[in-house]
Amino acid sequence: MVFKNDAWLSTVTEEILEPDREIVDPHHHLWPVEPMGYNLPELLADVGSGHKVVQTVFMECGAGYRADGPDHLKPVGETEFVAAAADKAKTQGAGVTIAGIVGRADLTSAHLDEVLDAHVEAAGGRFRGIRHALARADDPSAFRIAGDAPEGLSTDPDFRKGVARLGERGFTYDSWHYHWQNRDFLDLARAVPDTTCVIDHFGTPVGIGSHAGKRDEIFAAWTDDMAALAECPNVVAKLGGLAMPDNGYGWDSRETPATSEEIVGAHARWYHHMIACFGADRCMFESNFPVDRWSMSYPVYWNAMKIIAADYTEAEKSALFAGTARRVYSL
């Protein structure tokens, strides 16, 4: 995975819509070493490219792990790396604050509390929760990023105990999974009613491999899944990530990246259904950068969100762009 595609992204430029609207981006990554090519300078360039992004939340991605020490504590290295990046951004006077960190821990581990304590200590007041992804690709060779979670993870008693423990300690649980796993996530959310469970990327409706050409069929089943999930008061939704290559829109392989109008045309129905089911106060727009950078630029993504949100009330817009993220992640 390499994200050095600035020249390609620059072939589509747009005027920034509503430049004074405050944005909290609750889902981005950083990678500290090449060839990934997305670290603090790249993040600051994106968030400073025209929209008023004032806070962000880092989402675990397997970066910066400790090279030695106990295996269960190695993911704490990622939190140390991101906390250092956040401190550096503050020192540089950046206009955006990395205000929250969602780290990684094995939720089945008997050492979970030790790991959570270590994340808290490393984060400098920024630690907010854990993502232990459920994603399990059905045909890994077809995917750009293939989830490799163990089969049956969501029903593992130790895993459920771990997710429940997050809620007991006031932390969130983020899940990345695929559309055929939405019902697994629903069962999990029902089993841990006191833990705030965040569904990332719409439950990743896949559009490649055996799922190519089935978008309408997938959408029909997905709408029912989301309506059922919305009945769980402990579930909130991140709205973004639909432009990942594995969603199958093909923008990553074009001569030019997607425009905001193309994103709206392809994705609006997914956004509007989620907002109708969950309400704006349980939904938050997310960039999922740099992964969605394979398909579009950061300014284009947020322009698309502003077009999608155009007909909502001002209170709903405030929630979608910033308020929900601030509440869920206690920013």
Task: Summarize the helices and strands and which ones pair or pack.
Elements: H1 6-9, E1 22-28, H2 40-47, E2 52-59, H3 76-91, E3 97-103, H4 112-123, E4 127-131, H5 157-168, E5 172-175, H6 182-191, E6 197-199, H7 215-230, E7 235-239, H8 260-278, E8 283-285, H9 298-308, H10 314-328
Parallel strand pairs: 1-2, 2-3, 3-4, 4-5, 5-6, 6-7, 7-8
What does this structure look like?
This protein has 331 residues and is an alpha/beta fold. Helix content is 37%, strand content 13%. The chain has helices at 6-9, 40-47, 76-91, 112-123, 157-168, 182-191, 215-230, 260-278, 298-308, 314-328, and strands spanning 22-28, 52-59, 97-103, 127-131, 172-175, 197-199, 235-239, 283-285. An eight-stranded parallel β-sheet has the order 1-2-3-4-5-6-7-8. Helix 8 (260-278) packs across helix 9 (298-308). The chain starts with 5 loop residues before the first helix and ends with a helix.
Shape descriptor: globular
Write the element-wise H/E pattern from the N-terminal end onward: HEHEHEHEHEHEHEHEHH
Work out the strand percent.
5-15%
- Structural class by secondary-structure content: alpha/beta
* Strands in their spatial order, largest beta sheet: 1-2-3-4-5-6-7-8
Q: Please summarize the sheet with the most strands.
A: 8 strands, parallel
Q: What is the share of helical residues?
A: 25-40%
Give the low-pLDDT segments.
Answer: none
Distance between the termini: 30 Å
Number of strands: 8
What is the CA-atom radius of gyration, in angstroms?
18 Å
Oligomer: single chain
Mean pLDDT: 96
Features:
331 residues, 8 strands, single chain, globular, alpha/beta
